[in-house]
Design brief:
The structure is a single chain. The chain is mainly alpha-helical. The chain contains 15 helices and no strands. Helix 7 packs across helix 9 and helix 14 runs antiparallel to helix 15.
């Protein structure tokens, strides 16, 4: 191409007065933090002037001001498109704060109130021989009952849920698989009280058995089973089909491929799903109230006689309403939270131990 032709071509220039997009004005990175502080101050001040003592109302005002100020500043300094993006980001942060603040507040209140009474004596003694107004007593009988009831429920629900998930992913075809999937979905939404009433009608009233920890475990297993099935099913679907095909190409049977290749590969996710199901049933109170009844004494036999559990212990102590029982309720709630956290740490350890070598690299 000749030089004259190059000179005849129109020259492309940037018509915007601000120049290229990289040279546009930007708000400093510390602007969101400053806007948040100003919004919180104005929200607290406006709430105080209006006579609103609730922190929730003041927080809602601060959140609204944070979004408005973010949009106004971004529109003035940058442009409307960036302002809309910052508004969406601000709304996400507000929703995150709305979810985290109650959780942190609940955890702080439970730890601060429960730590006052939680010690070795509290964990090693029961409420046997204690009056409702008397200080002292412990949570040992409830902790023992929770361990036995949750353990029995896990022994019943985890194998059945795991085998059901393996069937649905590896073998399930046709109407039977569709029916199993449908009933698993239905069981996921069953209220805990319904599971308790079912076991009460079948086990206690129908077969004539009395209250026991095992009856409560059956109701907890019903609640736990669909969670195990769904979580295990999703973990098995994440295993690449290439691993299955490579194993089958070597002449390995289908069942051995599932046992030696598919399950070990997804063991970390399966253990996490089982622990999520355990965490769900550990805090259930309604089935325990119907089937276990509660017992202030130590009953190490889950198959005979009433037992106690941590959620039921917290409910019974808080229901009494006096200072000593409320302190025991907070300490029991902290024990329950610590119990669930230890189970999750144990699941993490098992998952790392059973995971294939090099999977976490």
């Amino acid at each position: 191409m000749s030089d004259n032709a190059l000179m005849d071509r129109p020259q492309v220039t940037d018509p915007s007065p601000a120049g290229p997009s990289l040279a546009r004005r930007r708000l400093p990175r510390w602007t969101p933090a400053l806007v948040a502080l100003v919004s919180v101050g104005l929200g607290v001040g406006a709430g105080s002037l209006a006579g609103w003592e609730s922190r929730v109302q003041q927080g809602l005002i601060a959140a609204l001001l944070f979004v408005i100020f973010t949009y106004a500043l971004t529109s003035l300094v940058e442009d409307a498109r960036q302002a809309k993006d910052k508004v969406a980001t601000s709304a996400v942060w507000v929703c995150f704060a709305a979810a985290v603040v109650p959780l942190v507040s609940l955890a702080w209140t439970t730890v601060s109130r429960g730590a006052e009474l939680l010690d070795g004596y509290f964990l090693s003694h029961s409420m046997g021989g204690m009056t409702n107004l008397e200080e002292g007593g412990g949570v040992y009988h409830a902790l023992l009952g929770t361990l036995e009831q949750v353990g029995l429920a896990t022994l019943m629900a985890a194998p059945v849920g795991l085998l059901t998930a393996v069937y649905l992913v590896e073998y399930g075809r046709g109407r039977l698989a569709q029916a199993v999937t449908f009933f698993v979905d239905v069981m996921t939404g069953i209220p805990s009280i319904v599971a308790g009433l079912f076991v009460l009608a079948f086990w206690n009233l129908g077969l004539g058995f009395g209250p026991s920890g095992f009856a409560g475990s059956m109701a907890l297993a019903i609640l736990m089973m669909p969670v195990v099935v769904r979580s295990t099913e999703e973990m098995l679907k994440l295993v690449p089909n290439e691993l299955r095909e490579a194993s089958l190409a070597l002449g390995v049977p289908k069942w051995r491929t599932v046992l030696k290749v598919v399950l070990p590969t997804s063991m970390g996710g399966i253990a996490t799903g089982v622990m999520l199901a355990v965490a769900r049933i550990t805090g259930e109170t309604a089935p325990v109230m119907l089937l276990v009844f509660g017992n202030p004494l130590i009953n190490p036999n889950p198959f005979s006689g009433a037992q106690e559990s941590l959620p039921l212990y917290v409910w019974n102590q808080y229901k009494l309403g006096n200072a000593a029982s409320i302190d025991r309720a907070w300490a029991g709630a902290l024990t329950l939270i610590a119990f669930v956290m230890l189970l999750n740490l144990l699941a993490r350890g098992i998952a790392r131990w059973k995971a294939p070598k090099g999977a976490g690299r």
